[in-house]
Amino acid sequence: MELSYQEKVTLIKLKNLRKAKFEDLVKETGLDQVAVMRAVLWLQSKGLARLHEKQKKIVRLTEAGKRYAEIGLPERRALKLLAERGKITLNDLKEVLSDDELKPIVGILRREGWATVRKENGELVLEITERGKMSLNESRPIDRVLKILAERGEVEAKEIEGLIPLNE
Asked: Considering Cα of 28, then 32, then 38, then 41, what sign does the dihedral take?
């Protein structure tokens, strides 16, 4: 059976390694990725090697995600302002939130138990709760995931699936 130089090098390294990740095989052979892939495919077609493919789901931040990693999630920024002042109006939140971020914030702060909401002089007033004060120093799963993604750029989905539910 006739083998090319790349096939011979790849086969010898595979024999020594027995099983190898593609990246490791490229490193060991000293060949470029295309040459190694071509060699492995030819070796497989000749019955001398077997290629196992494994798909990975990768998670990375969008532009909005990168922005929030930098300036903080809207609910965190709102909570910080609330903690500084004790109570605020919806208008006060415009100092730290965009109009799009402002719309769902009251519901989020209430759902998390971070603020109570009431009407005072015709305006919505938010007041920080004890839970809100305690949450200032606590990290939620979404906060941890955002930090991980900001630090590492991209992460395999299985690494963070235990922290937050991932949608396709």
From this structure: positive
Residues of the chain with pLDDT under 50: 168
pTM of the predicted model as reported, rounded to 2 decimal places: 0.65
The predicted pLDDT at position 45 comes to 92
Instruction: List the one residue out of 148, 155, 152 whose CA is nearest residue 59.
Output: 155
List CB contacts of 68: < 8 A, sequence separation 6 or more: 74, 146
Residue 41 lies in a domain: yes
C-alpha count within 13 angstroms, C-beta hemisphere, residue 62 = 1
> The CATH number of the domain where 130 resides is what?
1.10.10.10
Parent domain of 34? 5-45
Q: Report yes or no: 138 and 119 within 8 Å, Cβ to Cβ.
A: no
Q: Which two tokens stand for residue 12?
A: 């010898």
For residue 124, the cross-strand partners are 119
Question: Residue 86 is encoded by which pair of tokens?
Answer: 């004790």
Total domains in the chain come to: 2
Report how far residue 68's alpha carbon sits from residue 76's, in angstroms, rounded to the nearest whole number: 10
112 found inside a domain: yes
- Do both 124 and 85 map to the same domain? yes
Amino acid letter, 30: G
